[in-house]
């Protein structure tokens, strides 16, 4: 308490700046990868029925009311109401593993009046109006109706979840289907569920943040206590300006409030070693480099599709220990 802090703010600030820079670069790189993946999905080629023929366009150009053709093993680019398929009964099979984790095949149906429209010319001549509820995030709820005009007669059929093909699901065991887009872009159910998700954090990072708050509270307590003790000790004139440390005119005329704040910040710099900055550097670098090793792992490589393990975020590397084979456990 007798002397000013011998620690330079520069030497204390550089490690913090390095941590922030490393974290920003890591998060920026992962955001760029996600942005690149989004562009690939939004720019994926799709076929829509326009002017009596199939026209190739990008998935981001699909608008509500467009009739979209989806082939086997392709992903639905928007939320579609099934109109017809290559099957005579107008059914199709899909898997929603990327949405709800269920790998079993689900059967979806089209209404009888549209299931017979299996060609582009028939779909172009189709006169129908689809009415449905406003977009909502519930994957298993859909209420609507389709009104088909045939021979100047209007036929109304109800629509439910079994008629809706969700964006992100994949067509299986069916050569092709035709569907009309009802929810696109950020109005699709998959996108609405993404909006509700918070940033993912691992258990290790959560515990580290908890300890950081505790250490920060201790640091503030130490700085405030030391500042108060310093002014209590300098209450006597002989200690406020001893012979070996004479004050300058500027120090004598300076505001006591500003001096108190300056001393408080000086003690913060002096005691900042309680914050484990090097720990954060080590953990961030380990996560970032560990994500590359996951992509290089030959045991996670799928030779048939020529795909390696894709790391969307390195913040959850240590959570992989929670994944196990249930068949072995049973």
Automatic annotation (TrEMBL):
<feature type="transmembrane region" description="Helical">
    <location>
        <begin position="210"/>
        <end position="233"/>
    </location>
</feature>
<dbReference type="Pfam" id="PF00122">
    <property type="entry name" value="E1-E2_ATPase"/>
</dbReference>
<keyword id="KW-0812">Transmembrane</keyword>
<feature type="transmembrane region" description="Helical">
    <location>
        <begin position="264"/>
        <end position="283"/>
    </location>
</feature>
<protein>
    <submittedName>
        <fullName>Phospholipid-transporting ATPase IF</fullName>
    </submittedName>
</protein>
<dbReference type="InterPro" id="IPR023298">
    <property type="entry name" value="ATPase_P-typ_TM_dom_sf"/>
</dbReference>
<dbReference type="InterPro" id="IPR059000">
    <property type="entry name" value="ATPase_P-type_domA"/>
</dbReference>
<keyword id="KW-0472">Membrane</keyword>
<dbReference type="InterPro" id="IPR001757">
    <property type="entry name" value="P_typ_ATPase"/>
</dbReference>
<keyword id="KW-1133">Transmembrane helix</keyword>
<dbReference type="InterPro" id="IPR008250">
    <property type="entry name" value="ATPase_P-typ_transduc_dom_A_sf"/>
</dbReference>
<feature type="domain" description="P-type ATPase A">
    <location>
        <begin position="46"/>
        <end position="107"/>
    </location>
</feature>
């Amino acid at each position: 308490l007798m002397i000013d802090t011998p620690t330079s703010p520069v030497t204390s600030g550089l490690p913090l700046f390095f941590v922030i820079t490393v974290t920003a670069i890591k998060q920026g790189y992962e955001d760029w990868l996600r942005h690149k993946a989004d562009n690939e999905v939004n720019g994926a080629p799709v076929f829509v029925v326009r002017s009596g023929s199939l026209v190739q366009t990008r998935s981001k150009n699909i608008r509500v009311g467009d009739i979209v053709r989806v082939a086997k093993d392709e992903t639905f680019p928007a939320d579609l109401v099934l109109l017809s398929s290559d099957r005579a009964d107008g059914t199709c099979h899909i898997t929603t593993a990327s949405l709800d984790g269920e790998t079993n095949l689900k059967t979806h149906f089209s209404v009888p009046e549209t299931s017979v429209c299996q060609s582009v010319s028939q779909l172009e001549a189709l006169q129908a109006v689809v009415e449905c509820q406003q977009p909502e995030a519930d994957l298993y709820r859909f209420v609507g109706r389709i009104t088909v005009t045939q021979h100047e007669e209007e036929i109304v059929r109800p629509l439910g979840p079994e008629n809706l093909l969700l964006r992100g699901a994949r067509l299986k065991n069916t050569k092709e289907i035709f569907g009309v887009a009802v929810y696109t872009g950020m109005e699709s159910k998959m996108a609405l569920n993404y909006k509700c998700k918070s940033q993912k954090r691992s258990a290790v990072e959560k515990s580290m943040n908890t300890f950081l708050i505790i250490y920060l509270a201790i640091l503030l307590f130490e700085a405030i206590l030391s500042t108060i003790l310093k002014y209590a000790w300098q209450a006597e004139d002989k200690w406020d300006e001893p012979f070996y440390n004479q004050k300058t005119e500027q120090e004598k005329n300076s505001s006591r409030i500003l001096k108190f704040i300056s001393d408080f910040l000086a003690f913060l710099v002096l005691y900042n070693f309680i914050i484990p900055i090097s720990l954060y550097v080590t953990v961030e670098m380990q996560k970032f480099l560990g994500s590359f090793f996951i992509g290089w792992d030959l045991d996670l490589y799928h030779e048939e599709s020529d795909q390696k393990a894709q790391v969307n975020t390195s913040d959850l590397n240590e959570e992989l220990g929670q994944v196990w084979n249930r068949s072995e456990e049973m």
